[in-house]
């Protein structure tokens, strides 16, 4: 007989932020979907269930009129289904083509990584969050979008303010003010370059949007650029740091990867499986449906915890272990179905082939800082918030 969604109340929100994995394991073992009171959301944590959900967008919609994303960023294709989603997705596709990535973006991203690692190489210790990963992710996204040059911190601040605004369910006035300010600043930055991109087509995302057939309307351009700023900066930043962390915590694996560079792509996949930069994203149930024996009522908001699914013991052996040599198996770190991450290939290249290999190549004997351990945080977004390291000068 089908059962209803169980409710869990005895979880501290802080524990979810500090280390969600024991909680994810408990939820996975309890039921296919569990209402977690402190998160105010029904969470789905099993690999097979999330895969099934992503194959059925008619029942599990990405379109959510109540979503704060719409309020803060405007009408975006990421929160649409079917034709409306496909038009927005097609409009940005030219910027993400494999040939464009290889010929246009790879040389630019290599130059950015070289500059940042040159700056590092004069010292013998640093926190890689602020000296490498955050500027790398910000400067490469700035170039891809087609913005004028600005300090990397500016784009990073906009990104954080938009993300905070989209998750501001407690209606904190200061968070809302900052999000609305960032939103206005992004609009102004777009206005400053849009005519140039229209008259001089180029591989940037803004150029793809404004020269698409049919061209994307201005409110769509603004909303979709905000989604890309909110969703294209933290994740590569966190993937860079997580990959470095996994290798530094496992010296034998590090030695293996450095001796056999063909392992880099597998190492990147393992890093984002192990600590998925996006741990959870939302869907809305459009009709009464049974998910593996649990009844989900029409209108229910659910959170797909890909960070939990990627540690599902029914899918991955020893799932909590970072292991670059595990047998190849698809994971859900880049999502699945129609909304599969548009930035997957560009991230695989930037993180797994450019910046992290260059870092290990250039900084000799890179190692964790003996006195200051790394700190990893978050569950909706998760990654190292500081990664202090040393190397031989
Ligand atoms: C390691 C890096 C990254 C990870 C782990 C990641 C993960 C994800 C995930 C899980 C989704 C699905 C979200 C949902 O369905 O609600 C997504 C969507 C998306 N990502 Fe990424 N992402 C990464 C990098 C990037 C980058 C660098 C960009 C842009 C330059 C980007 C652009 C997008 C876009 C536009 C979507 C929406 C796709 C759609 O709705 O059709 N991502 N990403």
Percent strand: 5-15%
Q: Give the overall shape.
A: globular
CATH class: Mainly Alpha
Secondary-structure content class? alpha+beta
Identify the bound ligands.
protoporphyrin IX containing FE
Radius of gyration: 21 Å
Unreliable sequence segments:
none
Q: Give the CA-CA distance, first to last residue.
A: 65 Å
* CATH fold-level name: Cytochrome p450
CATH homologous superfamily identity? Cytochrome P450
Number of helices: 16
Could you please describe the fold and organization of this structure?
- There is one protein chain.
- The protein has about 400 residues and is an alpha+beta fold.
- It has a single domain, classed as Orthogonal Bundle (Cytochrome p450), CATH 1.10.630.10.
- Helix content is about 50%, strand content about 10%.
- The protein is built from 16 helices and 13 strands.
- It has a six-stranded mixed sheet with strand order 1-2-3-9-6-4, sandwiched between helices. Strands 5-13-10 form a three-stranded antiparallel sheet. A two-stranded antiparallel ribbon has the order 7-8.
- β2 and β3 form a beta hairpin.
- It is globular, with a radius of gyration of 21 Å.
- The N and C termini lie far apart (about 65 Å).
- The mean pLDDT is about 95.
- The protein binds protoporphyrin IX containing FE (HEM).
- Keywords: Heme, Iron, Metal-binding, Monooxygenase, Oxidoreductase.
- It holds the Pfam family p450.
- GO terms for molecular function: heme binding; iron ion binding; monooxygenase activity; oxidoreductase activity, acting on paired donors, with incorporation or reduction of molecular oxygen.
- Its cofactor is heme.
- Belongs to the cytochrome P450 family.
């Amino acid at each position: 007989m089908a059962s209803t969604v169980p409710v869990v109340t005895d979880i501290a929100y802080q524990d979810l932020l500090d280390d969600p994995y024991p909680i994810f394991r408990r939820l996975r073992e309890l039921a296919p979907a569990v209402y977690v009171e402190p998160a105010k959301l029904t969470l789905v944590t099993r690999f097979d269930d999330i895969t099934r959900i992503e194959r059925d967008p008619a029942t599990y919609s990405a379109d959510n009129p109540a979503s704060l994303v719409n309020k803060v960023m405007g009408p975006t294709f990421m929160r649409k289904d079917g034709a409306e989603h496909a038009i927005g997705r097609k409009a940005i596709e030219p910027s993400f083509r494999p040939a464009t990535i290889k010929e246009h973006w790879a040389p630019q991203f290599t130059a950015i990584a070289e500059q940042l690692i040159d700056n590092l190489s004069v010292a013998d210790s640093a926190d890689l969050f602020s000296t490498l990963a955050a500027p790398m992710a910000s400067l490469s996204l700035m170039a891809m979008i087609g913005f004028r040059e600005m300090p990397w911190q500016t784009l990073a601040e906009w990104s954080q303010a938009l993300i905070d605004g989209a998750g501001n369910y407690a209606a904190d006035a200061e968070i809302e003010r900052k999000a609305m300010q960032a939103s206005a600043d992004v609009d102004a930055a777009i206005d400053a370059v849009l005519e140039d991109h229209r008259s001089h087509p180029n591989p940037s995302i803004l150029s793809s949007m404004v020269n698409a057939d049919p061209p994307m309307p201005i409110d769509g351009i603004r909303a979709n650029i905000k989604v890309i700023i909110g969703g294209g900066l933290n994740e590569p930043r966190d993937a860079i740091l997580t990959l470095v962390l996994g290798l530094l915590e496992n010296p034998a694996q590090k030695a293996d990867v450095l001796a056999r560079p063909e392992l880099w792509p597998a190492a990147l996949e393992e890093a984002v499986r192990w600590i998925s930069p996006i741990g959870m994203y939302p869907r809305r149930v459009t009709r009464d449906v049974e998910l593996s024996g649990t009844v989900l009522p029409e209108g229910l908001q659910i959170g797909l915890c890909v960070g939990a699914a990627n540690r599902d013991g029914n899918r991955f052996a020893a799932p909590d272990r970072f292991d670059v040599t595990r047998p190849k198996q698809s994971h859900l770190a880049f999502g699945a179905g129609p909304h599969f991450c548009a930035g997957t290939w560009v991230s695989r290249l930037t993180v797994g082939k450019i910046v992290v290999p260059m870092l290990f190549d250039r900084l000799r004997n890179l190692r964790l800082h003996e006195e200051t351990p790394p700190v990893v945080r978050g569950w909706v977004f998760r990654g190292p918030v500081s990664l202090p390291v040393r190397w031989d000068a």
